Amino acid sequence: MLDRFAIEWLRGPLVSGARWLHAHGMRANQVTLWGFMIGMLAIPAIGLNWYSVGLLLILMNRVADGIDGALARIDGATDAGGFLDIVLDFIFYSGIIFAFALADPARNSLAATALIFSFVGTGSSFLAYAIMAERRKFVNIVYPHKGFYYLGGLAEGTETIFFFIAICLFPALFPLLAWFFAGICLLTTIVRVWGGYRAIAAAEEERR
């Protein structure tokens, strides 16, 4: 829901960073991999209750995720790079929730499980729509810069970052915040399934 505004606000700094890295020989896939490895370090940090360290690593991962896209547009985006970026993002997202389950299994495990369940809904609806939209050659008007067909919702990347910041700043509230965000993710899944199905069905009707 907030991604379109965040993208406009952050575009300038991300492009500047991408140009600097490109001038020094860095490529998009390298940034993707480095960002992923940094993000994975947040799992043991959070698991050990080092929440401030975990938050710093999460933010570094998200900066890398923004820069790799800008860098890919400079180098020339590739399907292989887009695939790598999407897969590693989903692993990172679920890994952070897993880390909170490790940090306090007795208090956090059930809420973490529910949240990962809801992430499967948002992720599968997102990817399934992208596949079908590519087949149907839909035009991506809202996110024309994306390397794939993007179906929005209440919980997108920006909201997820805010959620990660909140649970790192207030780890004692993780169960409450996780259940709340899981509800938002489930609503997003419903909206995406409904909207995606209608869009694809309408496209099929037009071709008959």
From TrEMBL:
* Membrane-traversing stretches: 33-59, 80-103, 109-132, 148-173, 179-200
Q: Name one GO biological process term.
A: phospholipid biosynthetic process
The record's section on PROSITE patterns has: CDP_ALCOHOL_P_TRANSF (PS00379)
GO annotations of cellular component type:
membrane
GO molecular function terms noted in the UniProt entry: phosphotransferase activity, for other substituted phosphate groups
Q: Does the keyword Transport apply?
A: no
Presence of the UniProt keyword Transmembrane helix in the record: yes
User: Which UniProt keywords are listed?
Assistant: Membrane, Transferase, Transmembrane, Transmembrane helix
Please name one Pfam family that this protein belongs to: CDP-OH_P_transf
Q: Which domain of life is it from?
A: Bacteria
Q: What family is this?
A: Belongs to the CDP-alcohol phosphatidyltransferase class-I family.
What name appears for this protein in its UniProt entry? Phosphatidylglycerophosphate synthase
Recorded source organism is Desulfopila aestuarii DSM 18488
Lineage, uppermost ranks: Bacteria, Pseudomonadati, Thermodesulfobacteriota, Desulfobulbia, Desulfobulbales
